[in-house]
Amino acid sequence: MITAFINWYLSALTHGGYGLVVLLMAVESSVVPLPSELVIPPAAHLAATTGQFSYAGIILAGTLGSWIGASVMYAVARYLGRPIIERFGRYVFISAEKLAGAERWATHFGSYGVFAARLLPVIRHLIGLPAGLVRLSYLRYSVATVVGSAIWSTVLVLVGVAAGEDAALLAGDLHHVTLWMAGALLVLGLLYWVFVYRPMRARA
C-alpha cells in the first residue's frame, strides 16, 4: 500500500508541484491518518535527483500546509466544541480517552506542547483539537505550529535527500523507499511512546 501511494505521489508531483505538497500536508494535519513521512521525503528525493523542486520550496510548502490543516482543527474545536468532537471523533479514530490525554497535554504544556507535538507522530494531527478546546491563544498556537512544522519539514527533507543518494533508489528500486519510511516511522513511534504516551498515561 505504501509503495502504491509513493508510485502515485511521485507521478502526481510532476503536475501538482508545491500545491500538492501543501494540500497533502494540510490533510496530514487534520484527522486523516496520512503520515508526513510519505509526503515530504519523496518530494525531496525528486529535488535531489531531478532538480524539479527546491529544498526551501518544499519546506515552505510543508510548513504552510501544516499550518492550514492545524488551523482548521483548532477552529473546529474552539467554535464547535467538545460535543461535536466526542460525537464524530470515533469515526476518525479519535477516542474520548485519546482526546482527554491530548487535552491534558495541551493544558499542561501550552504553546510549548504544541511546538513539541509538531515533532511527534500521532499527536501531531490531534493537538489542534485540545488547543482549541482549552482556548489557547491562536497567535501562540500558530507561531508554535509554524516553527515546529518548519523544523519537522526540514528534517524530512534531509531524509529525502539522504534517500536520493541511495544507489538502489536511483536505479528505481521503490522497495528501498518503503524501507526508509518504515525506519522513520519506527523511530517516531518510539519517540511518541517515550515523550507523549507515557506522560499522558501518568497524568490520567
Give a summary of the structure in a few sentences.
The protein is mostly helical. It has helices at residues 2-28, 40-50, 55-80, 82-88, 96-117, 128-133, 138-164, 167-170, 175-203.
Model description:
The protein is mainly alpha-helical and 204 residues long. It has one domain. The chain is 78% helix and 0% strand. It contains 9 helices and no strands. The protein has helices at residues 2-28, 40-50, 55-80, 82-88, 96-117, 128-133, 138-164, 167-170, 175-203. The radius of gyration is 17 Å and the shape is elongated.
Per-chain topology:
Layout: H1 2-28, H2 40-50, H3 55-80, H4 82-88, H5 96-117, H6 128-133, H7 138-164, H8 167-170, H9 175-203
Helix pairs in contact: 1-2, 1-3, 2-3, 2-7, 3-4, 3-7, 5-7, 5-9
Helix content: over 70%
Helix/strand-derived class?
mainly alpha
Radius of gyration: 17 Å
**Beta-strand content estimate:** under 5%
What is the tally of helical segments?
Answer: 9
- Main beta sheet: none
Element order: H for helix, E for strand: HHHHHHHHH
What is the residue-averaged pLDDT? Answer: 78
Which consecutive residue ranges, at least 5 long each, have pLDDT under 50?
167-174
Shape: elongated
The separation of the N and C termini measures: 35 Å
Query: Could you give the count of β-strands?
Result: 0
Number of domains: 1
